[in-house]
Every structure is written in structure tokens, then in C-alpha cells.
Amino acid sequence: MKSIGLYPCVRIDTASVPAAGQAGAVLLAETIRVTGLDRELSAALSPWRKPLSHHDPGKIITDLAISLAVGGDCLSDLAVIRAEPGLFGPVASDATVSRLITVLGADPDTVVKAIAMARKTTRLRAWGLAGDNAPTAGINPAHPLIIDLDATLVTAHSDKEHAAPTFKKGYGFHPLCAFADHGSSGTGEPLVIMLRPGNAGSNTASDHQQVIAAALDQAGLGPRPGHEGAPGPGRIGGAAERGAGLGGVGEEVPREPRAGRRGGNTRGAQSAGAGLLSHPPAAARGGH
Question: For an engineered disulfide with 118, which of 40, 58, 106, 167 has Cβ 3.0 to 4.6 Å away?
């Protein structure tokens, strides 16, 4: 075993050794390592790293993401991957992670921008490695990149910051998500998730504008795809009815539903109308 980046490079052999738990998450760690997400986050979050600290903030953030992917739902669930240092390398203690989140939470707007830039750089690198299988490969006005918008409810079982009653008489959060559509042979790739209180509206145009602008940036299309200097066209499809996020601008384009995720058969709007997103309104502090 050797280390490249912040995660071990694991090899498979037939030696008589005990089985490794959470081995399925090695695919995630390998994706992080190959695409350089850990290194990009490490560089982006370096201003918040304490002198002489042992654990890298970028590694801590990716460890948290892996713990969620394998079924965790709170910080202490990092214990699941901490128990497998051969697969995931050194994992910070709960106290260390809590201190980092406190530090990052003191400047949320700057931190979110830094993480978004690291994600964008890594995403475009991964799509470059994917070649013809990348979502943006061969896009043109007849076959644009589809970006789906979907608001979903997340239940809070206790009084959390920005939690509020929801329209379904629950309590929690109402994040607004943007997904890059990988077509009939794939699924949705999360581009942006805007955290919002539970009483946020599904059709709040300002939120849709902000999320669409951020999603186009994450896809490397710029604020006005298809215009001079922009890489190519895109199309926005939303769970909000009939292109509400674009203020009704653009032609509605029905398309085939995609199984496996709610909102897959929603309407779309030609992103030529996304020019109004060039200067999205500033996010409220609770919008991250």
C-alpha cells in the first residue's frame, strides 16, 4: 500500500488477511484520490488550517462526505471509517472535526466559495477524464446539457439552526438542488445544493436564479451558455412549475422521465434566458 494524495492507494491480493469493513467505500476514496478532490480542498481550505495541525481540513471534509455515503448521519459516525486506517488513512477525532467546523462556520460565505471552486476544478478534471462519457461531451443546441432543479424536504428531529415548519406540516429544512442529467444511461450528478429553512418556498425565483447560476458555473458553462466565448449550450429543467426559476423566460421543453429520482420528468426552459443570471442576488447568511 502506498499513499498518493491524502488517501492510501489500496491494492488487492489473495493473501490470507482479515476482511476489511466498508471496503465498498474504497471506490469513493479512489475517486477522490484520482480526481484530486482531496488536494484541491486541502489547498482551498489552507487559510483555515491551524499551525502545526496534524489533520488536513480538506481530508476532514472528504472523510465526512464518505461517512455520509456509507450511511452516517452525524459527526460521530466518522468512527466507521476511522476503524479502517488501511483504507482511509488517519481520520481526525470527533473533537478535532468539531473544532474545524466551528472555525469554518465563522466565515461561511468565504468557505463555501472556496469549497465550490475546489469542487468545480475537480469536476471538470473528472469530466475531462471521462472523455465522450462526460455530460458536456458533444453538447449543442439540439442536444444540450440538462440541469434539473428540485426542492426536497429534510426532517430535523430537534431544534437545529434555520430549521422551520414545512409545507407538509413537518419540521426541518427545504434545500434547493441542481443536478446535471447524465441521460437515460445515468442519473443526476449533484452540482449545487442550497441549504434553506423549512418554510422556504418551492418557487422562490431569487433562490432558483442563484442556484442556476451556481450550477452553470459548476458545469463550466459560464453564466450565458451558447453566447460568444461560452463553452456550449445548456437547458434548465425545474421541479418548480414551468421555468419559475427563470422568471418564465425561455421555451418549455418536455422530455422523457428518468427513473430513480423525483422530478425527472419536469419541464425545462432554454438557458438562453439565463442571461438574467449574470448578477444573482447575494445569498442570505442562512442560504448555505
Answer: 40
